[in-house]
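## retry 2 of 3
previous attempt timed out at serialization; input unchanged, resubmitting
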Amino acid sequence: MPLTLPSGKRLAVNIGVDFDAQTAFSGHMDHLSPAILARGDYDVYVGTPRLLGIFKKHRIPTTWCTPSHTIITFPERIKQIVDEGHEIAAHGLYHESVPSLSESEERRLMDVQLSHHEQVVGHRPRGYRSPAWDFSDATMTILEEYGFEWDSSLMGRDFQPYRPVPVTVHKEIPNEFGTPAKFLELPVSWHLDDYPAIDHVPGVLAGLMATDGIFARWRDNFDYALENEPNGCFILTVHGMVTGRAHAIMMLDRFIEYMKEQDGVWFATLSEISDAWTD
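## retry succeeded, writing output
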């Protein structure tokens, strides 16, 4: 089903900030070196203020998917994000590798992160984005049990929300499909994520693409969605430690300006997009 957008709007646009700070590599490294921690410092003290400045300039609301360790470590920055009209969504506790967790540990971490949200933000988050951009076999059930309204971790569509379906995989007979989830999936894409294209982690990620090529990729996806996916959604993911860099923040500024110049574009939080869905 398409979204029911405000009158005169044809495409919902969300810019989601994965605000990982010092947890960005916690789920993948046993030791966080001073250089890795410094990247988290950059996220908090340089990248985030630059992103907030761009969003304020263009007067657009955004969703900040934030590990709760970041929330309790940098509460004043969280308060600033909320005070400037943005949404805080769940993004794990310490950016854990969700598919590698046992079900009991996944539930325990969910309890802890939700308590952190209530402690600092004042209420539970409405939506969740897996820090792994992937689920365990138990994640779908856990999200339903904890009452999440939406998730933004999966890639079963590109420009249309949907309700994900659990799958029992077989090799020699057809796969079995379960009951669609109670929560709404607002799909992500590696093509629309700044991290793999721009960032650089020695021995792990090459990145370092020229911004002209990234801009063209984002623009082409946006143009296609606006023209061919009526009442759809375009979901972009950025990070302060990545797009907060000088060359990348200039690209984001140009890209937002480009989208604003097109007719029928609605900038919204992920929860506002979820509210526009009807089964």
